[in-house]
Structures are given as C-alpha cells and as structure tokens.
Amino acid sequence: MILDPRLEVFATHRTVRQYKAQPLETGHLEQLLFCAQHAPTDATAQMYSFIRLSDPALKARVAKITNNPHIETAAEAFIVCADVNRLQALLELKGYAFGDWSAVAVHFGIGDAVLAAHTMLVAAECLGYQGCWIGGVLGALEEIVTLCELPIGVLPFAGLTIGVPDESPEQRPRIQPELVLHENSYRLPSAAELEEALNRMASITARGDWAQTLSRYFAQGGTMEAREVVLQKVLEQQGFSHVSSDLNALMARAKKAGFPTILVRPTDTGFQAWIEQAGLAHGGEGVSAVAALEEAVQTAEQSLKASI
C-alpha cells in the first residue's frame, strides 16, 4: 500500500525494546503529555493517570517483576492507569455523592487510559522516538499497586516505554483488513480467511505457527487463565470489580432467604447455580455466574413469599 506522506509515521512504527542511553530532548516530555491530554475522553472526565517511573530502583524492580528489562533502560517508562479516584475527589469536593458504577468505570477508565497513552506513543514517534506497549504489567498487578502506592479507584492497566531506538526491527504483519472492517453488521470469517490470517502472521513466530503462539496465552492452560485470577482480585481490591460485587450481593440475598449453601459451576453453555438448605434447593441457569445465581435466588424469594 502507498500511504499518503502525511501518514508516514504509521509506516515507520516499530515495537522497540532496545534503547540508546540518552534522555528525551528538553521539553519533549512536556509536549508528549500535552498530546496525551488532548486525546478523546468520555464526558470530559479524563479517567486515567500515568505513573512516571523516574526512580532508578523502582524502574529496576518493575522491570524485573514484569519480565520487561527495557523498562529499566528506556528514557521514559510509565504505568498507564484507569483512574476514577480523582473524579470521585472532584465530585466530593463540591458536595456530590459518588455514584455506584464500577462496571462503567472499567469500561471508560480503560478506554480513556488507552486513548491517552497511545496518543502519547504516536506523538513520540512523530518526534523520532520509538516505544513499547507492555501487557506484562498484568502479571505483577498486586506488587505494582503496592510499589506505586495506588489508591482505591486506580487500576494499573499497562506499561509504556519511550526512548531513542537502538534497534531497527522489521514491522510486524497484520491480519487482512477484511477481518477487522465490517460493513453495517458483523460478518463471521470463513475457515479459508482464518487460514490466511494464520499464514500472514506466521512469520513473527519462531516455528511459523501463530496459532501455537496464541495458544500459550489464550487457550486452556495458557497464561491468561492464571492472570485472570490475579486481575479479579486486584479489580475488587481497587474498587472496580462489579462482577464480584454482584456475586457478593446475590450470596447475601440467598443467605437472607435461608439458603446458606451456594453452588455455582460452569456448563457447556454457561453456568448453573444451586442454593440449598436442609431438604430444599432452588436452581438457576445463565450465560454468566451472576445470571445463574440471580435466577436461583429469585426463585427462592418467590417461593418464600408464596409460602407466607
């Protein structure tokens, strides 16, 4: 494809992990922050924050626990966070009670954070720097929360390094545009199109098998299943776990209705839930654990009312 010259920055984009030992030019950090702050944001709320890792010892520690050595060597390294703590403080300062919308906080907080951080990265590339988006933060969430002293309402989402590149890797391929652009409604890909996607991406893997690479992360037994446990815990710890809150509320309702035993298990199509007391049980099914338990609890509550 021949790009318009004004889009040339995207043709030169590379993920870089090796940097020269030199800082950003004077004034460039401030300009990058200016660009980041002028990314789109929901309802003007700006639900994100960057933790700049300027302490060498802290950079070294985060580099180690995330298994990303370039965090220590990059000119600039950041932890990109969803942040509703500041929004709550602004509202409470003027006497407004903060709402209960933890699911929306995840949705828009991460959206704001990604938009701002990616805008910063593109701005850096316009100035001749390169960078790396770091998903490995997810493997060390609990320690990052502690190290960076993140309060309730602030969730570490990703890392970002920026610096003067000391390598020139090839630009990585992408799947065919027809699989990501849908006209008016979603179109399921054919098997042939999926095979083509696998072939397009094969060159980035050592064995030429992109599916195998993906499986190490996203298939059963992959690293994402282990990360899921940690993420759920940190979401709840930082005040973002709407799923956990819903489950806790349903469990409380079940116990109030006199059903102290609660069982939830996955099925081929979703989840089943049972709440039990001596000689009596109520069940429910749903696409999620919350939906299944909600049905079981509602059935029990209706049965209780009918018996009064």
Write structural notes for this entry.
- The structure is a single chain.
- The protein has 308 residues and is α+β, with helices and mostly antiparallel strands.
- It has 3 domains: 5-163, 3-Layer(aba) Sandwich (NADH Oxidase); 177-232, no CATH class; 241-307, Double Stranded RNA Binding Domain.
- The chain has 12 helices and 7 strands.
- A 4-stranded antiparallel β-sheet has the order 1-2-4-3. A 3-stranded antiparallel β-sheet has the order 5-6-7.
- A hairpin with a 4-residue loop joins strand 5 (261-266) and strand 6 (271-277).
- Helix 2 (28-37) packs across helix 6 and helix 11 (242-256) runs parallel beside helix 12.
- It is globular, with a radius of gyration of 24 Å.
- The mean pLDDT is 93.
How would you summarize this macromolecular structure in one to three sentences?
The protein has 12 helices and 7 strands. The chain is an alpha+beta fold and 308 residues long.
How many domains? 3
What is the CATH architecture annotation of the largest domain?
3-Layer(aba) Sandwich
Q: Overall pLDDT, averaged?
A: 93
Specify the number of helices: 12
> How big a fraction of the residues is strand?
15-25%
Strand order of the largest sheet: 1-2-4-3
Query: What Rg do the Cα atoms give?
Result: 24 Å
Going by CATH, what is the homologous superfamily of the largest domain? NADH Oxidase
Poorly predicted ranges (pLDDT <50, ≥5 residues)?
none
- Termini distance? 73 Å
Q: What is the CATH third-level topology name of the largest domain?
A: NADH Oxidase
| DSSP summary, beta strand count | 7
Query: What is the class of the largest domain in the CATH system?
Result: Alpha Beta
Order of helices and strands: HHEHHEHHEHEHHHHEEEH
* Fraction of residues in H or I helices: 40-55%
- Main sheet properties: 4 strands, antiparallel
Overall 3D shape: globular
| Structural class by sheet pairing and helices | alpha+beta
